[in-house]
Amino acid sequence: MLAVPVLSTYYALFRLRWKGYLIIIVSLAAVEAWFVKLQMYTLFWWRIEYTSIGLGVFLIFVRMVYQRMLQPLTGWVHFVLLYLCTAPLLGTFHITYKRQACLS
Predict the structure, then answer these.
(1) Were both Cys, which of 37, 43, 66, 98 would link to 12 (CB 3.0–4.6 Å)?
(2) Cα separation of 9 and 51, whole Å?
């Protein structure tokens, strides 16, 4: 759940070029394909190509957002960026809490 935000932050922070862009997309798509092959994950209507395209668009978006974050933020832009920063963490904690509650 945290892999995409962490890798996209790394991509934007270190200003990786097209090689880094492709490495991130191919590696995450390969992990998804590997999980499907190990039957840890089942695809229904989703395809791995959708992941690759979505990550490509997302990484471009992240680079634009990072450039915007280097300037002082106010108003709704500040609110949206705070939400985008905290949502992956809150989602991860929610899943962890629910899973531990079910196990006990």
Answers:
(1) 66
(2) 18
